[in-house]
Amino acid sequence: MAIKEYIVKEKEHLISLRRWFHAYPEPSLQEHKTCEKIAQELDAYGIPYQYISDTAIYATIQGKKGPGKIIALRSDIDALQMQDLKDADYASKNTGYCHACGHDAHTATLLIAAKILKEKQAEFSGEIRLFFQPGEEIGAGARIFIDAGLLENVDRIFSAHITSRIDSGQISLTPGAINASCDYFKIEVTGRGAHVSTPQDGVDALYIAAQIVSNLQSIVARGTAPNDAVVVGVGVLQAGTQYNIIAEHAYLEGTTRTFSPEIRNLTNEKVTTIATQTAAMYGGKAKVTFKSFAPPLINDAVVAKEAYEIAKDIIGEENIITNQEKMLGADDYADFLQKVKGVYAFVGTRNTDKANTEVAHHHGLFDIDEEALLTSCNLYVDVALSYL
Length: 388
Hints:
The chain has ten helices and 16 strands. By secondary structure, it is of the alpha/beta class. The chain folds into two domains: 5-178 and 297-387, Aminopeptidase, CATH 3.40.630; 182-294, Alpha-Beta Plaits (2-Layer Sandwich), CATH 3.30.70. The strands form four sheets. An eight-stranded mixed sheet has the order 1-2-4-3-5-16-6-15. β3 (70-76), α4 and β4 form a beta-alpha-beta unit. α8 (301-315) crosses α10 (372-387). The two termini are 22 Å apart.
């Protein structure tokens, strides 16, 4: 049980790529330099590719043993709009942007996996499709590949996400729901303005909005079974124009998160009902708009078991987690899993001997144990080779 030699020999290249991407982060759907670097690498490996949007790259590797099954491998490539707080020499050079979620590692890992698989294309039949996906952080990237028809005839899909919640050298391959859905909502409240000294002449949109915020909490507290995890959160409330004027308009922005399609639909329906009925009760109106960022991420049990058998030869069964606690964070890889059987592996990068590897994702000090890149890369390569 050990990292394969064909992975180890690429270690220096793999780490250097990860550090390059870390130093030049770009926000969702604006990953232009990132894509240029990806394209340069693919050209060097002799792997054909095409842009299917401004910043979405699709590449393919055909097995030389003839036609066969098709597997897709995916990485996300976008960064976050936040400041990198590290003093490492590979810290962000793009002020105000930071790879604080590991997408730099994902991109580098898939590139090196592609290089190795290209070198081994005489050993397998079928086809490997490579998805370098933009816009994961805003739930807008997976659908680009789906809408382009690139999941047609795909038999399996695989991806891995690094995590500081797990020790370096460990992998989570947990079947079933592992990440929550993510829906955005906006509630626009309309009242009627008046002087604050004559509240009877107006309809206070600010007061209505505050009541909506309070009433929304009943969805979780009194409308959801205690063993069903649900989040209904409001992050924005804006209203009014001046201290002595009853607010005529207010709006709220928030999110709902659940682990099943059924509870997701029910929760979102309750948001709409509570908002509209609360506004009506006080003489106002509420318009509710939803945007779907990601469905629940549900790993296929069969594919998780297939990946388990491969992972145990790399890191040993004792280092594989199959009952990882569900996470209310979302990932639009879930869109792929609604179309094709697949699994999302979580690869540990926490190492108490290395600075900042215990820091939570989406924090400016976030960093990783780069040894974990080898584990992740080995998993990508061997999952593809084994399936094909």
